[in-house]
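Batch job 17 of 40 flagged for manual review because the log was empty.
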Amino acid sequence: MVVEPSEAVFNDMMSKVNTLPSYTGGDQGFLNSYYSDFPNAHVFDPNIPQEVLKVRPVPEMERLSTLYNADVGLYMLANKWMVDESELRVIHYKLGPLKPWDWWTFWLLKPVDVWQNVGERLEETLPGTGGGKNPNDELLVKFLFLLPFCVLVCYYRSFLHTGGFLFRTSLCNHIRHLYFIIRSSGTVAYSGVSSSSNINVNNPTKVPVYLGGISVFVCFMAAVVSLGISITIVPQQVMPWTGKENSDATDPSFC
């Protein structure tokens, strides 16, 4: 059930929210208890002429027909809406845990586009909240994106102060060795060509065979851990690449 109550009805709901039963433990069960006569209400007919609407008494309650309601589950089965998409007023996202406010459902449900398009048209109620954005979450996403680069810069600067000279010397020796191999066009045993007295030509440094596999595994695990931490920190309602929050859209109504 989706309602857009007036201020008086809303205040009355809030006064009864702790007293009326809810068979679901949430808002839907409460609304069914609050509107107890809803199942017996007549179905609204949009084709009634204006002349008839003016003379007939205004009913206390009417139910919208299926022409105004769309179910995502039925859309997934038929791969289309029962009416034109521009005429939809209510969309029910009841396909299990796939809710449109969770960013990862974007790749699973096509109707999520409708939800996100409505969210982009939301007006700004607080500074920085226009279009469904949340300044705090957006700042958090930018911080998590820039954090690895900051760590890399700090590590590189500390490495230059500690062992950068030896690294540059070894790199130059390796490049020089490759140059002599290409120039001579022959097979030269890797023994380290260097003019530096710090490198022993007869005893080259050997790299363990398993170091390459371990490096790949460590890098892969670091990426997985980083992704897991990011998913834990960033709420599900926030798109990781933009920081935009998929907040509740109210026009049209969705549930």
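Reviewer: the log was empty due to a logging misconfiguration, but the result itself is present. Strands lie at 42-43, 62-63, 69-71, 90-92, 253-254. Unflagging and moving on to job 18.
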